[in-house]
Amino acid sequence: MMDILLDIISWIFLVSGSFFCLTGAVGLLRFPEFFSRIHAASLTDTLGASLILIGLMFQAGWQLALPKLILILIFSLLAGTTASHAMGKAALQSGLRPLDQDKDGKEPDEEEELTWKP
Amino acid sequence: MNILGLYNYWIVVVLMMIGFYVVIAHENLIKKLVGLSIFQTSVFFFYISMGKISGATAPILDDKYQLYSNPLPHVLILTAIVVGIATTAMGLALVVRIQEAYGSIEEHEIQAQDTQDQMESQLEAYGFRKKHLLSIKNLDE
Amino acid sequence: METLIDFVLLSFLVFTALAVAKMHDLFAVVMLSGIYSLLSASLFFDLDAVDVAFTEASVGAGISTLLMLASLKLVGRYERRTRYRPMLALGVVLATGTLLIYGTLDMPHFGSAEAPVHQHVAPRYLHDSMDEVGVPNVVTSVLASYRGYDTLGETLVIFTAGIGVISLLRVSRRTKKEEKKRVPADMQQQIILRVVVKWLLPLILIFALYVQFHGDYGPGGGFQAGVIFAAGIILYTMLFGLSNASRAYKPELLELLSAFGVLLYAGVGLVCMVLGGNFLDYNVLRHDPVHGQHLGILLVELGVGITVASVMITIFFKFTWRTVKHKYIKSR
Q: Which residue of C has its CA nearest to A94?
């Protein structure tokens, strides 16, 4: 009974993790520019990888693999987020700007847009 | 001739030929090095695919398993991977020096500069004086 | 199920290789080659080659991509398009490919246990490794003990590559003085990266030591450990500057260490000869052959790890000093 319950829980985690990774990939292809793509890829990837790892922890049971998986989870959380931060920062410093900002980093002035132009 | 049974080897041949094409047809030296590494990795697949046995596990001895995959190709490919990275590192250092000496890493430009140097040294051997050589050089630029 | 994973990963590999052949932006080509190495590492794992997967992931997707990016900084990013169509090359490639595929029709099917390659030496290694060497990881016992001479040659190849890069990319004293004057200003603002690297670096180095000494019981060994160690130091160098890293890991010490690793390996072989056995015959190292094999494998893998780590760090340092020279010193 306990085995089946553990199996079902680990399956839920594994499938949802894969779903998040897939949606991250779809977002990577569909978003218009670099910064939104990093946003899609890093958020969903970190979450998906963490869910898959937790699902694997249920499969591992009380073996030696369990602390190793916990360490991998902590490390991938740290390193994945830092890597996407590094990417965004490198892009900003090279001169790339998000889609709604012009070259100097200014956003379009909101009051101007609300005025009706004939 | 079962397709599934030989699929691995055919993909190996396809990858090998893509790497081969990149090495002989592209002119940029770094692209050639990348093509060479694609070629090398396809050969690694060939060996590892030969060593795999269906239903076996990794060759780390354990009481739970009876059937193990062949460890010998793994050993050979470990050596091959490391030798591959050593040659890639040497190749990249050579490319850096070529760039500094010739100013470009495209094959036809390097060959053009070499032919020009060769022509100049031959003309000098025939006794043309220096100022004639300088004017010939200016013609090309 | 394994066949399906095999099939999908191999198709991805072909697409990646085709993309490498088509693209002209060398930065994208290098990134694609990193992806290619990572895909092949997963494929090696699927084919039960766990040691090979580990090595390919760390070496191919790590160090190789890094060195290519460092040289891209020195040579320029775009490939010029050729003006002619290489029809002869295409013809040669197609002809060779057809001949090779015709040659594979004779091969035994993938995964069959009766293939000739499984018949002669491999069963002997699998049966007798536990009694003669006493180490569960058969790949390590074959690599370090049964075929130890080849591994000595491999260590020498890495050492030779290190010597070659050192002699090709020399660094003058003027470059070192220039670099000390300017730590790159943008790297000083990378506070998040610096803090995270300060946390992670000891863990990376401990992991490298774990992989080194755990190679007997699981995937691992000298090469992977050396590369992971080098990757940790390279990460530190990228964020804290070359002069800081050169103060901690002096180039003279690194060159000495790379020679020391090879000396350790060959020295173990000579000590075996002095004690009465053959070259690299670890049985005579201790009172008991199995304990002798354990000690021999430990020392030999340590030598390999030391050489690989110091050579990789040296090569990266030399490439990076060259970028400093290109950037700050105009006359050459």
A: C186
The kind and range of the H/E element at B125 are helix B107-125
**How confident is the model over C246-259, as pLDDT tens digits?**
888 888 899 999 99
Are B101 and B112 found together in one domain? no
Cβ-Cβ contacts under 8 Å between A and C: the total is 16
Q: Tell me, yes or no, whether B90 and B125 share the same domain.
A: no
**Is residue C86 exposed (0-12), middle (13-18) or buried (19+ Cβ within 10 Å)?**
middle
- Of A101-115, B19-33, C15-29, give the lowest mean pLDDT range: A101-115
Using a threshold of 3 CB pairs under 8 A, tell whether chains B and C touch.
Answer: yes
Could you read off the pLDDT of C67-124 as tens digits, one per residue? 999 999 888 888 887 777 888 889 999 999 999 999 888 888 888 878 888 888 888 8
pLDDT value for B57: 87
Domain around B50: 3-105
- Distance between CA B10 and CA C220 in Å, rounded? 30
* Cβ <8 Å between C190 and A89: yes
C183 phi/psi in degrees, rounded to 5:
-75, 130
pLDDT for C264 equals 94
pLDDT given for residue A11 in this prediction: 93
A78 contacts C192? CB cut-off 8 A: no
The residue assigned the tokens 């080194």 is C212
Q: Does residue A47 sit within a domain? A: yes
Count of domains for chain B: 2
**CB–CB of C277/C284 below 8 Å?**
yes
Q: Residue C203: its chain A contacts at CB < 8 A?
A: 75
Nearest CA in chain C to A76: C200
Distance CA B89, CA C221 (A): 22
Q: How many structural domains compose chain A?
A: 1
CATH number, domain of B101, equals 1.10.287.3510
Domain that holds residue A66: 2-94
Chain C interface disruption, residue of A81, A82, A93, A94, most C CBs within 10 A: A82
At C84 the pLDDT is 78
Prediction ipTM score: 0.90
